[in-house]
Amino acid sequence: MITEKQATMIAHVLHEIRPAWGIDGTRKVLERNADHPAAFGEVLSAAVTAALDPDTQTPGRIYQIQTHWPAKAKPRLPKPEACPDHVGQDGGTCRSCWADVKAGLRPESHVGKHWEPPTGIADALEVSLAERLEADLRP
After folding, report:
1. Are 30 and 10 spatial neighbours (Cβ–Cβ below 8 Å)?
2. What does pTM read for this prediction?
3. What is the rounded average pLDDT of the residues 37-55?
4. pLDDT value of residue 116
5. How far apart are alpha carbons 86 and 66 in whole angstroms?
């Protein structure tokens, strides 16, 4: 569990590592998860590890996947939400969803979330390609 002051401190540290992660937005993510059972040092460690991970695009992923957390904190972490589309897979890291993304059948924004593909494969590819183009154009 972390305090508002600690959340602000972590947000500033993460902003130094990842300038694209705004301080206010990061602080809000941390404050929303203030009742998380991990201690301050564990949250800080997980947050810094996530910020250093090039695959982690937003600070919200700190709480979505458990790979960033120190080993001693993992037994106390809440169980991740299950992927609604793939039985036995964690929502934030669903391998089947990522396979769909790589195949162009699911937009990356719907990894671990229910995805109702458009009626035709051409429509699905158009949505996926548009999302990838948008991601490539982001600074």
Report:
1. yes
2. 0.58
3. 90
4. 86
5. 18
Q: Which residue has the tokens 């990894």?
A: 111
Q: How many CA atoms lie within 13 A of 127 on its CB side?
A: 18
Question: What is the DSSP-derived secondary structure letter of residue 90?
Answer: B
Give the domain range for residue 29: 4-76
pLDDT of residue 109: 84
Q: Is residue 69 part of a domain?
A: yes
Do 100 and 69 fall into the same domain?
no
User: Cα separation of 80 and 132, whole Å?
Assistant: 26
Q: Please give the single-letter amino acid code of residue 99.
A: A
Give the chain's length. Answer: 139
Tokens of 118: 């458009």
User: Crossing angle of helices 23-32/4-17, nearest 10°?
Assistant: 140
Query: Are residues 13 and 53 part of one domain?
Result: yes
